[in-house]
UniProtKB/TrEMBL annotation:
CDD domains: CBM35_galactosidase-like. It comes from the Bacteria. GO terms for molecular function: carbohydrate binding. This is Cellulosome protein. Residues 448-594, 724-874 form the CBM6 domain. InterPro entries: CBM6, Galactose-bd-like_sf, GH. Transmembrane segments: none annotated. It comes from Streptomyces tuirus.
């Protein structure tokens, strides 16, 4: 047995400590083809652009459950508006909750009695199927869900039920309704797939449902239920259901557990990986539950195009390939312990393992490493995917270690993981070793977390809040250390002081994890709560803290501080003698400090052999490669990289290659007008590109010969792609659109509001392009419209703008909520401009329902565009 000799974290064990737990990955035991089914989403897509197609494709979202087209259950998430962007982004199936054509929960279906209510529903089902039949090939990706949690809704005991008798006690009316609706859907669309019964748990009575369905030839095409219990219950329930199938005598059905997880789990990689491992092991599809706002992939997406830690977990999970292998956890199938999932891809000669859920130390052991695949040495790359909050943007995973290790004589390698965080997930990628270049350094050298509840508070108004989410309080939100601190608010003189100790002189990245509830009285006035940062009483900075849709929904505000080696006091205060006073009300969870040294400022590395490959596989026989190998790209073969950018703007993308051919580049699905990369000899091709803040899809596609692609390196840069910025108030407003000074955080204090409610109410801005071609149009906007809700979900509305360039046909753009009209975000879209002056026109009007003959009566489709502050125009690429 051979150990990885590296420090994976800053903590060390103590002498005489117990043997660390072991997570064993058995590469010799195949447990079936990799499925990828855990990356599903309930109500996670609002419409095309919210979230961006990059986020959808990069998260490898496989299934989406969403509302019936034009349903009034929530704003957005209309099935037939979600369907094309989802399928075009690689999605498999859209499950239509047909019951969500009604308001309320339990569903408020009209009628004097059960038969009348069912008759009304059947008419609505007929219309829904007829609408789906207009969708061309997209309809093949639809699965109909006729009833949702029928035991608590239409066939339960409540006011709005069929006859106030639960089908669990007397199933006759539900079974008859299932049969009628099944035949109705199949009669209209013989190729339709139908999912059911979609109960809130896997009841024992489902066996009786299967018996009835078999006897009456109405067996669902997909078996669906919800798992809002624990990951351990997933494996148990799937096994229990499979036994029911055997006893009833029906063939195994595909399964979609189309709601899983709780607030305490969602957004937290170390929690969600426990669900993922159970779901993948069970080879089923499953959708993250919808507790909060739609359009953010169940607390995975930030703004329109950024991902948090949970997004990066699913990005890593979706890039697994080949077949799964047996993983033996130290506490098998036990929630809130170390769990994992692993794959082996023989064609790629690569194994990937994802694990997490435990703080402290553990050994990750790979057994039965095949010398024919890997040789006598493996390259192990170890990454951490940290928790960054529900609304906190995350950079790409941290590289903890990258090393060649000799495989033991018994075919094993052990990776000692020290100082793990239970909120993080971890990834190990194993490849053949011994040929690549110098192993990459860790991407961060020193970092430390300081909890707010351990900081010193002086002044009035202090509160220590918690415990927040926990295994016994899964409805509450996860919080680092389970507690947070309040007191920094309007009228306060509070100061929260963190005593820190740093190893050397330098610049440090400082991340303040905080939250304000956007609809809270003190927060409503200004929006983002401002607080004041000082180091040792000096160098004041004003910080604006993140807003959320509820209390204890965490994001982070980032800055840098200069520190000398040793101890310092970092303060967050509600007053500053030089800068002013706090407006609002915020809670603080923690601060993270990390040394901004050459590890951090070095270019981000994206190895080709770890990319998503099409028509290609890695080759590990190249000593000149940077990682374990390189990827030969013949004509048409491609490597796709998910590249992070901290903000919208220029970056230098360096393509390192070993020669052999040429390739083209595309960015976010668009082929770029740049010189081809590659050549006959080893080299590097640099190109300046405009990257959108968050997630960018960069694809390298072979065009001639066979380019040996080594890696991409990405560095923020400036000076080549210079934006031209136009204040919205300098444009022309028409109709009711007007310039406003109501929003203090608008640049220059002015913005344009009331665009829309008809095409006459417009903003027109003339912009100048120095050359023709593709440009990035960056719109700084705000949007806080919210519809009245009938349930626990806040219902923010994604406003839209119809953008016309030079009088051409309008393109509809969706803008996610910014949680307050005084909170401005950037949204970038590509546009084609001619050389010289171009006229951009922004309008909006309320969208009708699918058939064009009715409108939403619950104010769920806004007639207005967002407030527009300014517009930036930047070439997408250098000349």
């Amino acid at each position: 047995m051979v150990f990885l000799a590296t420090m994976l974290a800053t903590t060390t064990g103590t002498a005489g400590a117990a043997e660390p737990e072991r997570l064993v990955v058995d590469l010799g035991t195949d447990t079936g083809p990799f499925h990828g089914g855990a990356s599903g989403s309930l109500y996670g897509i609002y419409g095309d652009g919210v979230p961006s197609r990059n986020l959808l494709e990069g998260m490898h979202v496989r299934t989406v459950s969403t509302k019936a087209q034009d349903g009034p259950q929530h704003p957005g998430a209309d099935a037939l508006e979600v369907l094309p962007p989802f399928v075009d982004s690689g999605g498999k199936d859209v499950y239509i909750y047909m019951t969500d054509i009604y308001r309320g929960f339990p569903y408020q279906w009209p009628g004097a009695d059960g038969p009348a209510r069912l008759a009304d529903f059947k008419e609505k089902i007929r219309k829904q199927v007829q609408q789906v039949l207009t969708m061309g090939e997209y309809k093949d990706h639809v699965v109909y869900v006729p009833f949702n949690e029928p035991e608590g809704n239409m066939f339960g005991t409540g006011e709005w039920s069929y006859n106030k008798v639960s089908w669990l006690n007397d199933p006759q009316h539900y079974f008859a309704a299932w049969k009628e609706v099944y035949h109705l859907i199949k009669g209209l669309d013989p190729d339709a797939r139908i999912a059911g019964p979609n109960t809130s748990v896997l009841y024992d009575q489902i066996k009786g449902f299967l018996q009835y369905a078999k006897a009456n030839d109405v067996v669902p095409d997909v078996m669906a239920w919800h798992e809002l219990s624990s990951p351990a219950a997933v494996r148990t329930s799937v096994a229990k259901y499979r036994q029911m199938e055997k006893e009833v005598g029906i063939d195994p059905l595909p399964i979609n557990v189309n709601e899983y997880g709780h607030n305490y789990h969602l957004s937290v990689p170390g929690q969600v990986i426990q669900w993922v491992s159970a779901i993948e092991e069970s080879k089923i599809d499953a959708d993250l539950a919808y507790w909060n706002i739609d359009g953010n992939l169940n607390d995975s997406a930030v703004e329109a195009n950024k991902g948090n830690g949970q997004w990066w977990l699913f990005n890593a999970y979706g890039q697994m390939s080949g077949h799964t292998v047996r993983v033996t956890a130290p506490h098998p199938n036990q929630q809130y312990t170390l769990q994992g999932v692993a794959t082996l891809d023989e064609d790629k000669k690569q194994s990937r393992a994802l694990f997490g859920g435990k703080s402290g130390d553990a050994d990750v052991v790979f057994e039965n490493i095949d010398p024919k695949l890997f040789g006598k040495t493996v390259r192990a790359t170890v990454q951490e995917i940290p928790w960054t909050g529900q609304v906190g943007d995350s950079a790409q995973p941290l590289r903890l270690a990258d090393q060649d290790i000799e495989v033991g004589a018994d075919g094993t390698v052990t990776l000692p993981m020290t100082g793990m965080n239970e909120m993080s997930a971890y990834q190990v990628i194993l490849s053949p070793g011994g040929n690549g270049g110098t192993p990459a350094e860790p991407s961060v050298s020193w970092r430390k977390t300081y909890e707010a509840e351990n900081a010193t508070y002086t002044g009035r108004g202090y509160s220590k809040n918690g415990p927040e989410g926990s295994p016994s309080q899964v409805g509450k939100f996860a919080t680092s250390g389970m507690y947070n601190v309040g007191g920094l608010r309007t009228g306060s003189d509070g100061v929260l002081a963190f005593d820190v100790d740093v190893p050397q002189d330098g610049t440090y990245d400082l991340s303040v994890f905080a939250n304000s509830y956007n609809l809270y009285d003190l927060v409503k006035e200004q929006g983002p709560t401002n607080v004041f940062l000082r180091v040792d009483g000096k160098d004041p900075q004003e910080l604006r803290l993140p807003l959320g849709y509820k209390w204890v929904v965490w994001g982070h505000t980032d800055t840098t501080v200069k520190l000398t080696a040793g101890k310092h006091r970092i303060t967050l205060a509600a007053q500053d003698p030089e800068l002013g006073v706090t407006k609002g009300d915020a809670i603080i969870d923690k601060i993270d400090l990390s040394l901004r040294d050459e590890h951090v400022t070095a270019p981000a590395i994206y190895e080709a052999e770890y990319a998503t490959l099409s028509g290609a596989r890695p080759d590990y026989a190249h000593p000149g490669a940077s990682g374990p190998g390189a990827v030969p790209l013949a004509k048409g073969a491609s490597a796709t990289f998910w590249v992070y950018a901290p903000s919208d703007g220029e970056a230098t993308v360096s393509t390192d290659h070993l020669g052999g051919g040429r390739a083209s580049l595309s960015l976010n699905g668009e082929k770029l007008d740049v010189p081809k990369v590659g050549g006959g000899k080893k080299g590097t091709d640099d190109v300046r590109l405009f990257l959108s803040g968050g997630i960018n899809k960069i694809t390298v596609t072979g065009t001639s010969g066979e380019l040996l692609l080594d890696r991409l390196r990405v560095t923020p840069s400036h000076g080549t792609l210079v934006p031209k910025v136009y204040q919205a108030e300098s444009g022309t407003v028409s109709g009711a659109a007007k310039v406003t000074e109501s929003y203090s955080f608008a640049s220059g204090g002015k913005a344009v509001t009331d665009i829309g409610d008809g095409k006459a109410n417009a903003l027109t801005v003339d912009v100048v392009a120095e050359r023709p071609g593709r440009h990035a149009l960056t719109i700084r906007y705000s949007n806080a419209e919210q519809a009245p809700a009938t349930h626990y979900n806040p219902d923010p509305i994604a406003r839209h703008a119809d953008l016309s360039v030079n009088g051409g046909p309008a393109r509809r753009l969706l803008f996610p909520t910014t949680f307050h009209f005084n909170n401005f975000w950037d949204l970038t879209v590509p546009v084609t401009l001619k050389k010289g002056t171009n006229r951009l026109t922004f309008t909006a009007e309320e969208l009708p329902d699918f058939n064009g003959d009715t409108y939403n009566q619950y104010d769920q489709r806004s007639p207005y565009a967002p407030v527009i502050d300014r517009i930036g125009v930047t070439p997408l690429t250098q000349k």
